[in-house]
Amino acid sequence: MEKLVSSWSKDKPVPESYIFPPETRPGNLIVPTCKTIPVIDLCNAEGRNRTDIVQQILKASQEYGFFQVVNHGISENLMNESMDVFNELFEMPDEDKVHQWRDNLRHPCHPLQDCIKHWPQKPIRYREVVAALSIEAKKLGLRILELVSEGLGLESGYFGNKLSEALHLFVNHYPPCPDPSLTLGITKHCDPNLLTILHQGDVHGLQIFNNEEWIGVEPLPNAFVVNIGNQLQIISNNKLKSGEHRVVTNSRVARTTAAFFIAPSEDSIIEPAISLVGEASVYRAFEYKDFLLDYLSHMGNNEVVLGRFESQSLNNGTECLPPVRCNV
Ligand code: OGA
Ligand code: NI
């Protein structure tokens, strides 16, 4: 088992194998604080504020591929309790860590009855609290997708069923790092799924790449960060964009986050929505599982991956690529 970074990283310099090449190192960690992604208040999203909120979501999804939501209906208590459990998970002594535990714990959350029995048994509240949060996160995601479909002029329920059937949780833990300028928690990537709902706690670290510069995503109390995944960009025929992002570390405190990935079932056929195609469809139809294979082989290199699914692409996806490790 690979040793957790959190088990050896204290009071040591950054080992050679964790130092990124100069061109991808974060280096100077000061990012603009005057600019930030939109914060959208979901209060009355199904009532009198609906039109306005749909417009705000659409604009943010076009400009950044990212936004935060507040007044989303998930209780402060559940958000805090789940963050406590996620932190506890990485604070447990080594002997309690089961084989698949790493600084990144991933598991499916749907269908809940089938997968919950494979979730960690410790911390003891893990299953109960995370089950509650995953149900709420899925509901919130579907609500936002419904607002997005309205904004795009698609029929109600367009993203329901198979396109949003899967739910995966990634719990990320970034221990303090002696020199954050040399390394990254996660390299630049887009999420391959439909929509991501991120509980980022109260520590800075997430940055998005927008207009050729990095901007930090401010941790806001009781907010979730929402970002557009590759499949939503494709289905919208590039009307929305999947925002590129990365995670930087810091030297003072550990950061724990929980990302819920709402994704199509693996055999779903993905293609741009007919009503959004207009003159030309930017992408061809494909099976979601083929996208995932390409995504993994290209280390999440967004342009290359999306390029392989464009209708004009000369490459029909049959070329055989060696698998490489990817940390998303
Ligand atoms: C991810 C991700 C961001 C974070 O898990 O894909 O981008 O802040 N996480 O942990
Ligand atoms: Ni991501």
Automatic annotation (TrEMBL):
Q: Which GO terms describe its molecular function?
A: metal ion binding; oxidoreductase activity
Pfam families, per database record: 2OG-FeII_Oxy, DIOX_N
- Keywords linked to the UniProt accession: Iron, Metal-binding, Oxidoreductase
What are the residue boundaries of the Fe2OG dioxygenase domain, all occurrences included? 165-264
What the entry lists under PANTHER family is as follows: OXOGLUTARATE/IRON-DEPENDENT DIOXYGENASE (PTHR47991)
Q: Which family does it belong to?
A: Belongs to the iron/ascorbate-dependent oxidoreductase family.
Protein name per Swiss-Prot or TrEMBL: Fe2OG dioxygenase domain-containing protein
